[in-house]
Specification:
By secondary structure, the protein is an all-alpha fold. 81% of the residues lie in helices and 0% in strands. The protein is built from twelve helices and no strands. It starts with a helix and ends in a 6-residue tail after the last helix.
């Protein structure tokens, strides 16, 4: 009886010890030293965007108010993911922060067309020409090629969750912060590559962007399903927490991907409408007058 009681106590100790390990790992990966300045930068970006949009309207330029709201929502999502409260166990918290910082926030930011706003605010000359040179450079065109952007985004997620990178971030807070920064930038790169709303190098058609979005969604879903079964190497999350976090990643990712698909659908509808309008004008012109 005594040996059985000791084994039970030891088992409870091991089970209790597993949770703090997982909690520390999740905290390092999602809230490194880069998080506070990054959150502050998002707040400042929202203010600068609002001021810039107001300036455009004062001089008579058209800039829809909905873009201000969408950009503010994107910044709020990133700030919430970096510094706000997220309910659940440690892995569920990580999954929620991932959805906010790496998926929902970047998707909203891309739809708000920040590069277009900056280009319209800058006067003709050096700074504007330099920004256009960067946006139209071969490097930008390569990074914003949808399959490449998807590989950068999803590849980073798979490396984090399916290698010892998470465990390494557990021992190096700076690495955890840099990983958080990478997830934000990679998510923004992917959203901009798929939406293609800002003036950047390269003309990628809707079919390629749609197929890339579907493939990326499948890769994200496969990662979430694998995490439902086993956690990242070197971590020991509770089974219920792991399942809840994986389900949040799976279904939350679907929501963001449907949002991006709707953006593509609106673009397809607008493009088709313009094409039909041009065809109607051509058909209305008498044959002899052409």
């Amino acid at each position: 009886m005594e040996s059985g009681g000791a084994a039970a106590v030891a088992g409870r100790g091991r089970a209790a010890g597993a949770r703090p390990e997982g909690r520390r790992a999740a905290a390092v990966v999602t809230a490194g030293p880069v998080a506070p300045p990054l959150a502050l930068g998002c707040v400042l970006a929202a203010v600068v965007y609002a001021v810039g949009a107001a300036r455009l309207r004062r001089r008579g330029d058209a800039w829809p108010w909905r873009r201000d709201s969408v950009f503010a929502a994107g910044c709020a999502a990133v700030v919430w993911g970096l510094a706000g409260p997220v309910p659940g166990g440690p892995f569920t918290v990580h999954a929620g922060r991932h959805l906010l910082v790496a998926m929902a926030g970047p998707a909203l930011l891309a739809v708000a067309r920040p590069l277009t706003l900056v280009l319209r605010l800058l006067p003709p000359g050096g700074p504007r020409r330099g920004l256009l040179r960067v946006a139209h450079s071969p490097a930008a065109g390569w990074l914003l090629f949808p399959p490449v952007a998807a590989a950068v985004d999803l590849g980073g997620l798979w490396l984090l969750h399916r290698t010892n990178l998470w465990a390494a971030a557990h021992h190096d807070p700076l690495l955890g912060g840099l990983l958080e920064l990478h997830m934000l930038l990679a998510g923004l790169l992917f959203a901009m590559a798929v939406c293609r709303l800002d003036p950047v190098r390269g003309r990628c058609g809707l079919p390629l962007r749609a197929v890339t979005l579907l493939a990326a969604g499948a890769a994200h879903a496969a990662l979430a399903k694998s995490l439902y079964v086993t956690g990242p190497p070197g971590t020991s999350f509770a089974a219920a927490d792991l399942r809840a976090g994986a389900q949040l990643m799976y279904y939350g990712g679907d929501v963001v991907e449907v949002f991006l698909a709707l953006v593509l659908a609106v673009q397809w509808y607008a493009t088709t409408g313009r094409r039909r309008a041009r065809q109607a004008v051509r058909d209305a012109v008498p044959v002899g007058a052409r």
